[in-house]
Amino acid sequence: MIRFYFHPTPNPAKVALFLEETGLPHEVIPVDTRKGAQHDPSFLAINPNGKVPAIVDTDGPGGQAARVFDSSAILLYLAEKTGRFLGDPADRPELLSWLFFIATGIGPFSGQAVHFQHYAPEGSDYAVNRYRREIARHYRVLDTHLAGRDYIVGAEYTIADMSGWGWLNVAARVLKTEDDPFADYPNIGRWFAAIDARPAAARARIVGRDHPFKTDFDETARRALFPSNYPPAV
Known about the structure:
Helix content: 40-55%
CATH class of the largest domain: Alpha Beta
GO molecular function, one term: transferase activity
Oligomer: single chain
Number of strands: 4
Domain GST N-terminal: 1-86
Pfam families: GST_C_2, GST_N_2
Keywords: Transferase
InterPro entries: Glutathione-S-Trfase_C-like, Glutathione-S-Trfase_C_sf, Glutathione_S-Trfase, Glutathione_S-Trfase_N, Thioredoxin-like_sf
CATH superfamily of the largest domain: Glutaredoxin
Mean pLDDT: 96
């Protein structure tokens, strides 16, 4: 059984998509990050970095329980565990390269673009400009790569596509636009539409909908989400 620690944000969405694709038995355990549940000692014992997603596999290697945190690590772990969505073994170097391009580029730059456009105080023009331009650059890299391709790596749907879907799913928020976020990236738009049309993607979108996650962005949420902005409690 997989215990899946979840909040409805892009990185957990990747893992939700994998679990929905495979039907791997799992239990969704809500972590309400706007209430600060990610900082609870019980969760820090699973992910010392205090972030979602994380999993505990009660039937890990050697029959021992295994914790895994960070969405890319989880995708690799589950793909290796099930033997699915790893693509052709000959494409493994490409798979790792694109998986970590998303993990170290598209993901964090998207997160910073969202932060400075939606949450930071007004006057952060330099940061907004930097992260918007950097995410546009990353989108162009991926868009160029996807020309003439159905999937990010090789001829098969893999965990690289799942990882990309998690963040491209919120492209409109990242780019702060009400228009088509892929208008300038037609290859991404075509690829994303195909991944998003999969039945598992529709199921992944509604994971956790039955839990009343905190939606107010008040002082409690700010302190929970951005604790480094506040002095430590004495």
